[in-house]
């Protein structure tokens, strides 16, 4: 049945499958409860709390009011300000296993880096002497916000990188086109140089055929004057100077012969 009292002291085990109402329980042995344990006050454990089920905190929307979102940026800034440490409990710590090395935060450091309302939500008093503790489960909400902000920053950087890569690719295409133009211009230059050399060789050949007495430049001037306006002759001379020069010489000879006969 039910037991009601202000203080219950046991030297052996306490087993109950019903409801136990008491203002204080002291036991040096195990306390086994097969039903539901409800408390409206605080529960302090100096050892490890082990359970096969889940630890569930009430979070129903219908029980909440004055709901205000915490920005992802604020969450990230808060998480970045936290400094994880390892430590051991000293002799003044109540109900603590002093043989283990723990991992966590220093409550005073967390209090100093968090602004309200985050500070009062995470940093809580643990006794009436001014000692404080942390609600570690609530830090997970900050971690979620921080992760979202980091993911947003990553996506933004990816978009920027993609745009920069597109610019680099476009510049690369322009460089390749420019290099192709340079290559074609060089080919044209080489071709022009070979053409000039070929014509120079033809001119040298003509001068050699005439014992070096053939002045190509003066001949060109005379041909231009005698065939004024006939650019075709000049172009043909550049293409085949030997045959053109032979024909021109023949014509000049014929003209001279006619002058001599007329003078006789």
Automatic annotation (TrEMBL):
PROSITE patterns reported for this sequence: ICA
Coiled coil ranges: 147-209
Superkingdom, natural source: Eukaryota
Residues covered by the Peptidase S74 domain: 59-161
Pfam family, one: Peptidase_S74
InterPro entries, A to Z: S74_ICA, WH-like_DNA-bd_sf
Keywords annotated in UniProt: Coiled coil
Gene3D superfamilies: Winged helix-like DNA-binding domain superfamily/Winged helix DNA-binding domain
Protein name: Peptidase S74 domain-containing protein
Organism: Florenciella parvula
